[in-house]
Design a protein that fits this description.
The complex is a heterodimer of chains A (about 260) and B (about 290).
Chain A lengths: L1 H8 L16 E10 L2 E11 L4 E5 L6 H9 L6 E6 L2 E2 L5 H6 L2 E4 L11 H8 L6 H14 L1 H5 L10 H13 L5 E5 L7 H16 L3 E6 L2 H7 L2 E6 L2 E7 H5 L2 H6 L5
Parallel strand pairs in A: 3-8, 3-9, 6-7, 7-8
Antiparallel strand pairs in A: 1-2, 1-4, 4-5, 9-10
Chain B lengths: L1 H31 L6 H19 L7 H20 L7 H23 L14 E4 L2 E4 H23 L1 H11 L1 H6 L4 H26 L7 H15 L4 H21 L8 H12 L17
Antiparallel strand pairs in B: 1-2
Classes of the chains: A alpha/beta (about 260), B mainly alpha (about 290).
Chain lengths: ~260, ~290
């Protein structure tokens, strides 16, 4: 619980509630998705307001990554809508979604292992036309992750797990996203490193990027997020403020290891 | 000793030609997991186009590469858009059947246009040789090998130094991650297919100068090219080049010291031996990471 309290101090500021009528940065309305005959999402609705950090927690196989795949366009939903700033994006291919301002650091990091750190970051800005602003974003990534600057010429595959996670997030930021999707950033990392990464995620959010954070590590995720959703078997079963979820007996029992 | 050096050099030059063509095949496989059985047919098609340019217009066949390669590139792009794209994500067996059918169609078209008799491109230097320090080098093989290496170098520069090359390598490593950074993988795939076919086209122009050919010769070529790519490791560009050099040298040395009739068999024995020890090929690796990911 000590960790818990420390992370609470690191929490992102309460989101500024948008004027009534302004569409959220990202919204899913009754999204259904399936792989073949497996009905993976059964009507998922959630939203991320501008400047907000939202956690999506749930067990392995609950459909968390599928939610992200439907947002990024890797998987076309069978029903429902995905809206970015009020405009539908659920029919768009991934490269268009990136260009519209959704950056994603995929699960398992998925950097390009045979390319250097510099090449990976460069590829992050592939979809952009504003080449001049790209330089500023590289500096931003270096300020957030000074380690990446030291490793610039190194092949990404030779980085440590934590460094690869930094690179994956840095690469996503190079697209200059309004909404950042993070898929299990804590996976496979030592607790110290997880804390450091989460501090940086909070910093990114403070700088104005809305974040949808998908995590199995519910304690960490609810420690930094403004709000959260709990996904079970492809359905949102709980939606509340992060504090509300942390004090919810059901969440405590199932996801926080508190009996 | 001089003769051995001569045969080694000739083998390396031949390997350069094989490398260029095999590079196209392995690139296509690496990015889209399509085994292009029609690769040899495109090679022979380029040889025929080169033949027509040479016999009708008197253009030097090796210079004609500047014309044939863009033409074959365009044919490759159109082929991709009309034939390959609809089944790009289908199981590999479907793409093998499809490209095999494509090879048969191209063979038929070539037979209709150019006939089924043996065709040879014989520029003025076809019967000339360089001789120095006791070495005896047929000019066509020297020019052909050097042109092949030059084109291969250009291909390598495109892959390593340009945005397109970076996008191609990203798409080959992990298509989903490539999409997530904003690369239009479908468009990259079309370009890669066209580039791969163009490499076969450039190789075909050279091959047409080195050997007589018929429309049906594409069967021998695809067999040899697949063996080279498997020897090097499917999808590995460096592997394909290494495999091609081994093939070229092995064929040349066997023809010189054993018998020309064994020249086509010995390289396959090498492939067999290598695969027993290294089933993934010489430089094969798990290039793609997401094959089983959901």
């Amino acid at each position: 619980m000590e960790d818990d309290a420390r992370m609470a101090r690191n929490r992102a500021p309460e989101s500024v509630h948008p004027a009534r009528g302004e569409p959220p940065a990202l919204e899913l309305r009754d999204v259904h998705a399936s792989y073949g005959h497996i009905h993976a999402l059964k009507g998922v609705s959630l939203h991320v307001s501008h400047g907000e950090m939202v956690a999506l927690i749930g067990a392995n196989g609950a459909g968390k990554s599928t939610v992200l795949r439907t947002i990024s366009g890797l998987l076309r939903p069978r029903g429902g809508q995905v809206l970015l700033g009020g405009s539908r994006i659920d029919h768009l291919p991934p490269h268009r979604v990136v260009a519209l301002g959704v950056g994603q650091a995929p699960e398992g990091r998925r950097v390009f292992p045979r390319m250097t750190v510099a090449e990976n970051l460069d590829l992050g800005s592939f979809a952009r036309a504003d080449r001049a602003a790209v330089e500023a974003d590289i500096d931003r990534v270096f300020r957030l992750f000074p380690r990446l600057k030291e490793r610039l010429r190194q092949k990404a595959g030779t980085l440590s797990g934590g460094e690869q996670q930094m690179l994956a997030i840095g690469r996503a930021l190079m697209a200059s996203p309004n909404v950042l999707l993070l898929d299990e950033p804590s996976m496979g990392l030592a607790p110290m490193l997880v804390e450091s990464i989460f501090r940086t995620i909070v910093e990114i959010n403070r700088q104005g990027t809305s974040v949808l954070l998908v995590e199995q590590n519910a304690l960490m995720a609810l420690g930094v997020a403004n709000r959260g959703y709990v996904l079970e078997s492809g359905t949102i079963v709980l939606a509340d403020t992060a504090d509300g979820l942390r004090n919810n007996p059901r969440v405590q029992k199932a996801y926080l290891g508190i009996a | 000793m001089m003769q051995l050096i001569q045969n080694l050099v000739l083998g390396l030059l031949l390997g350069g030609v094989y490398a260029l063509v095999a590079a196209g095949l392995t690139l296509i496989f690496g990015v889209m997991r399509v085994i292009n059985i029609a690769h040899g047919a495109f090679l022979i098609l380029a040889a025929f186009i080169t033949y027509s340019l040479w016999s009708a217009l008197g253009i030097d066949p090796l210079l004609a590469i500047l014309v044939t390669t863009p033409v074959i590139f365009a044919i490759g792009w159109v082929t991709y858009k009309t034939v390959i794209a609809p089944i790009r994500t289908a199981p590999m067996a479907s793409t093998v059947l499809l490209t095999f059918g494509l090879a048969l169609v191209i063979e038929g078209v070539m037979g209709t246009i150019w006939g089924n008799s043996s065709t040879a491109i014989r520029p003025g230097y076809a019967n000339e040789s360089f001789t120095f320090a006791g070495l005896f080098m047929p000019k066509a093989q020297v020019y052909g090998g050097l042109v092949a290496v030059l084109v291969l170098l250009i291909l390598g520069l495109i892959l390593s130094k340009t945005w397109l090359g970076r996008a191609i390598r990203a798409a080959a490593t992990n298509p989903a991650s490539a999409e997530l950074v904003g690369i239009k993988v479908a468009a990259v795939a079309a370009l890669v297919f066209a580039i791969g076919i163009a490499a076969a086209g450039a190789g075909g122009a050279i091959v047409g100068v080195l050997y007589p050919f018929v429309a049906g010769a594409h069967y021998q070529w695809i067999a040899r090219l697949l063996a080279i790519v498997v020897l090097g490791g499917m999808g590995s560009l460096n592997g394909a080049i290494l495999g091609a050099v081994i093939f070229g040298v092995a064929e040349t040395l066997t023809a010189a010291y054993v018998s020309p009739s064994w020249a086509t068999a010995v390289p396959y024995a090498i492939v067999f031996a290598v695969l027993v020890v290294r089933p993934q090929g010489l430089m094969g690796s798990r290039l793609r990471e997401d094959a089983v990911a959901t």
